[in-house]
Design a protein that fits this description.
Largest interface: A-B, 48 and 38 residues
Radius of gyration of chain A: 25 Å
Oligomer: heterodimer
Helix content of chain B: 25-40%
Number of strands of chain A: 26
Strand order of the largest sheet of chain B: 1-8-3-6
Radius of gyration of chain B: 15 Å
Number of helices of chain B: 5
Structural class of chain A: alpha/beta
Helix content of chain A: 10-25%
Strand content of chain A: 15-25%
Shape of chain B: globular
Strand order of the largest sheet of chain A: 21-23-22-24-25-26
Order of helices and strands of chain B: HHEEEEEEHEEHH
Number of strands of chain B: 8
């Protein structure tokens, strides 16, 4: 009972409840608190970290932190090189991750990431009610009621940051003894065994990389061909860190990387018989192996939210979301953390946002905190005024060094507006999809960085005037510098209609 | 094998994929991404580049040109192919008129997909021929 009475946020009614204590929830609660928004935070975990406790073999992040970069550690510009630190406003608490890493890799280990999150919570004084498990949900008038292991929480606004980490496997793999990513034996127990891994995305290749020194043979199979991130120039595809099994296959070293559907998996004595079929020529291949591992993805642990009407889509059962990460079908329910990838944005060139990773969703969380403060709590947040001659250099500086634009390409944008009475204002970072679809919004320009999977990134401009949006794509720059005179001239020319209007209003 | 069998079953009923075997349909489901749009949301936007090739799995959408509604699209219909094939921005908005679930292929992936699936390419050609015929009737 001592723990119950000492823990913060006892059951009851709150204006806002956040569920989770991973990086997404922590960034959100920090940002909400800075905006003066009272809220409760509950988590089933015993301490900060969430999903960062349950990784097999390598126990390392796929997102890097460079301890040394061309910008001062702790500066806004440095965030482009540090994908893992959360984002406080006070200088003393910025760029925590490089201070807790031992230098053996620029991918933080799982314990290092957990230490970074704990340090952030301690230094910023965040409060979370740990060990409080959300069990079910219902609606009561304007409130959502969360039934938890500690009692009932009521709130008209709830943010779920519960990860996308519940393993999923297709029915063909629901066979006794078939293992799952996150639930593997120690690597050495696969010594001299044939291992069949179903799934050719990062999790499958991660396991295969770990078993290369042990397994007698490794087969990786799924119907469609493997993509590599170095080819797509995005986070789509297998990351370079786990490409070694692919090279082993390409050099005929013994690993098999197969395009095949799994027809059946059958246990035969101490072995498994895996029957596969090629999607290209219909050819059947059968494999006799000692281990079958499902690396077939994860689903979102939404519990009973679909029963409340929360629409989901895709194999990961992600909730469909608005550009501000609110359920598309149940207003008042928001999402944070890796679930934010369900708000897909423009997906230009088919490249998704980085909202599934810390380096992406930490920025989303700041935008969401401001949105909740304005839309649910009636806060009026200050905007920085700009003079007409500041607009071009400001936008190009954002394109060159703004971490939100670099980490969330074609997804988050810097917006500058023209208000008839207020003049020119920095509207901050906004979801690009919301900007281009808000045709009744005030005249404004948004700048984002765009990638097309072939070239270096380039600035993309969206000018909204008179209820229409016009797109303008600038050229890539080999050194990724967009502040040179040719860019200034080009942007100045593109913005002339908007700025002329602003100048004429200022003159009046 | 991250394949959703319910989507495979739906695709097997679409004319576009009538010539594909089950493993080929599973390959399609893995190759395409799945996206969801709520009522009133724009899927592709007139004048904005690099969208994609969309196939409606569930729900309906409207083609809107310069703010004027033109044609309703339903499950099995597809859109965005002209923009992908020509590398030009779409000349119309496509807007969800009720919750819409689509499969989507990035613009630069359409050529490889069609070349790898000639029967699907033939059926897309048939679709384009029908659109051309309709347009010709409008003009005549």
């Amino acid at each position: 009972m001592a723990q119950l009475t000492e823990a913060p946020f006892p059951p009851g009614r709150y204006s806002l409840v956040v569920v989770g204590s991973g990086p997404g929830a922590l960034q959100l609660t920090y940002s909400l608190r800075r905006l003066g928004i009272d809220h409760a935070v509950i988590s089933q975990d015993p301490s900060p970290g969430g999903m960062f406790r349950r990784w097999p073999i390598f126990q390392r992040m796929l997102s890097w932190t460079k301890p040394f970069a061309d910008h001062k550690r702790g500066s806004t510009e440095y965030e482009r090189y540090d994908w893992n630190s959360l984002l406080p406003d006070e200088d003393a608490n910025r760029a925590i991750m490089p201070t807790v890493m031992d230098g053996t890799s620029y991918f933080p280990s799982r314990p290092e990431m957990e230490r970074g999150l704990v340090t952030f919570v301690e230094r910023t004084g965040l409060s979370v009610r740990y060990g409080c498990r959300w069990e079910s949900t219902r609606q009561d008038g304007d409130d959502f009621v969360l039934v938890t292991s500690d009692g009932e929480y009521r709130a008209p606004t709830v943010v779920f940051a519960v990860g996308v980490a519940e393993p999923w496997r297709p029915s063909a793999l629901v066979v006794e003894g078939v293992q799952q990513y996150g639930d593997l034996r120690p690597a050495e127990t696969y010594a001299d065994r044939r291992v069949f891994i179903v799934g050719k995305q990062n999790s499958g290749f991660e396991i295969a990389t770990g078993l290369l020194p042990w397994a007698r043979q490794i087969v990786l199979a799924s119907p469609s061909p493997t993509k590599l991130s170095v080819d797509t120039r995005s986070l789509v595809g297998v990351r370079a860190r786990y490409v070694q099994p692919y090279e082993d296959w390409a050099l005929a070293g013994g690993v098999l990387v197969l395009d095949a559907s799994i027809e059946s998996v059958e246990r035969v004595g101490s072995h498994y018989l895996v029957k596969t079929r090629s999607p290209h020529d219909g050819h059947d291949f059968n494999f006799e192996v000692e281990d079958v591992i499902a690396a077939t993805g994860f689903v979102t642990p939404l519990r009973d939210l679909p029963d409340l009407g929360v629409a989901t889509f895709g194999q990961s059962r992600l909730p469909a979301q608005t550009p501000f990460w609110e359920s598309a079908s149940v207003p008042g329910i928001f999402f944070a953390g890796t679930i934010m990838q369900g708000s897909q944005g423009l997906r230009k060139h088919g490249i998704p946002s980085n909202s599934g990773a810390v380096q992406g969703y930490r920025y989303n969380a700041r935008v969401l905190a401001r949105h909740i403060a304005e839309s649910r709590f009636g806060k009026r947040l200050e905007k920085r005024a700009l003079k007409p001659d500041q607009v071009v250099p400001f936008l190009l500086a954002e394109a060159s060094r703004g971490p939100e634009l670099w980490h969330q390409r074609s997804y988050l944008a810097r917006v500058v507006s023209i208000d008839p009475s207020q003049g020119i204002a920095d509207e901050g970072i906004r979801p690009l999809a919301q900007f281009v679809d808000d045709l009744e919004g005030q005249d404004a320009v948004a700048i984002a960085l765009e990638a097309n999977g072939r070239d270096d990134p380039y600035p993309a401009l969206y000018l909204r005037m008179g209820g229409k949006v016009k797109e303008h794509l600038m050229h890539p720059h080999r050194m990724l510098q967009y502040e040179e005179p040719e860019y200034q001239r080009e942007l100045g020319s593109f913005l002339q209609p908007l700025l002329v209007e602003a100048l004429s209003r200022t003159a009046q | 094998m991250e394949v959703r069998q319910d989507v495979v079953d739906i695709l097997s009923g679409f004319a576009l994929f009538a010539d594909l075997s089950t493993p080929e349909l599973e390959n399609v489901v893995q190759t395409f991404g799945e996206v969801y749009f709520s009522e009133g949301e724009r899927i592709i936007r007139q004048g904005l580049t690099a969208t994609g090739f969309y196939l409606i799995v569930d729900g309906s959408a409207i083609i809107r040109v310069d703010g004027k509604d033109r044609t309703t699209l339903r499950p099995g219909d597809y859109f965005g192919e002209i923009s992908c094939l020509l590398g030009e921005p779409p000349t119309a908005d496509v807007v969800a008129v009720r919750p819409l679930r689509c499969l989507v292929l990035p613009p630069n992936a359409l050529e490889d997909f069609l070349v790898a699936h000639p029967h699907v390419m033939f059926r897309v050609l048939q679709g384009e021929a029908r659109k051309l015929r309709t347009t010709t009737r409008w003009l005549s």
